[in-house]
Amino acid sequence: MDTEAQQEDRYRRRQRGQQGFWLVLGTSLLSFLAGLGASSLFWISEVRVVAPDPALAQAVVRALSVPAQASSLFYPLSRLERQAMTLPQVESVEVSRELPHHLVVGVTRRVPVAAVVHERGLLLVGADGVITNLVPPGEKAPHLPQFLSIPVDNPQPTGELSAEWAVRVAQVAEAAVSGGLGGDVRVDCSRSLDLRLTAGGVEGYLGATDNLARKVSLFAALRTELRRQGGDPAYIDVRVMERPIWMPKGGKGG
């Protein structure tokens, strides 16, 4: 009759044998899958770009590079994401596998919301502050709110506004559009404590950079209401939002 020690020894040998079997089987299976994935059955034959317009799709295609005989199973999708994101006009990227031979790259366009006036031209920027285009002086630019005297460290596509100015520009641009001011707005940011805008011949005193969106919305609403009542304001002062002041052209403040 086997002793308890002998039984334990047989049990351990049986366990090691089973572990060895599964290890060999797993290794063989992984080797088979790796060989299969690297075979011509899964070589990437096409990278398809899905974009909102043909021009962006063509630009993304030119930015992508996949080595010959790369596997659609194992090729890192993050590489294609990084390549596409080098384009300033691309805001987001999503890459998926379409086995056995295709990868699909879906992109969204970064839409400019404002223009920053610079000595090199107009810097078109998205809502995240990334510069999408540089429009040289004299060339036609989109009808967007314009900002003067904003510091830009890298005034070219792929450059970015500072985090503070990116937020301010996005807030003012959104408020201007929603308030009906559109691209007629020009904001002078040369003095951070005394920002001023002009829209349709009316000057607006905004004061410091706090509550910019609310100030622009208030300016737009007052301008609309004054004109509805037949007024012709020269300026509207919203620095103190609870007590706005306006001056008719050639008249006294209201």
- Structural category is alpha/beta
Oligomer: single chain
From the N-terminal CA to the C-terminal CA, the straight-line distance is: 111 Å
Order of helices and strands: HEHHEEEEEEHEEEHEE
Low-pLDDT runs of 5+ residues are none
Strand order of the largest sheet: 6-5-4-7-8-9-10-11-12
**Number of DSSP-assigned strands:** 12
For the sheet with most strands, the description reads: 9 strands, mixed
Helix run count:
5
Query: Which percent range describes the beta-strand content?
Result: 15-25%
Name the overall outline.
elongated
Question: Mean of residue pLDDT?
Answer: 87
Task: Walk me through what this model shows.
- It is built from 5 helices and 12 strands.
- It has helices spanning 4-38, 54-63, 77-85, 163-178, 212-228; strands spanning 46-50, 90-98, 102-109, 114-118, 121-125, 131-135, 146-148, 186-188, 195-199, 202-207, 233-237, 245-248.
- A 9-stranded mixed β-sheet has the order 6-5-4-7-8-9-10-11-12.
- A hairpin with a 5-residue loop joins β5 (121-125) and β6 (131-135).
- It is elongated and about 110 Å long.
- The mean pLDDT is 87.
State the main characteristics.
254 residues, three-stranded mixed beta sheet, 34% helix, alpha/beta, nine-stranded mixed beta sheet
Helices and strands, with pairings:
Blueprint: H1 4-38, E1 46-50, H2 54-63, H3 77-85, E2 90-98, E3 102-109, E4 114-118, E5 121-125, E6 131-135, E7 146-148, H4 163-178, E8 186-188, E9 195-199, E10 202-207, H5 212-228, E11 233-237, E12 245-248
Parallel strand pairs: 1-3, 4-7, 7-8, 10-11
Antiparallel strand pairs: 2-3, 4-5, 5-6, 8-9, 9-10, 11-12
Helix pairs in contact: 4-5
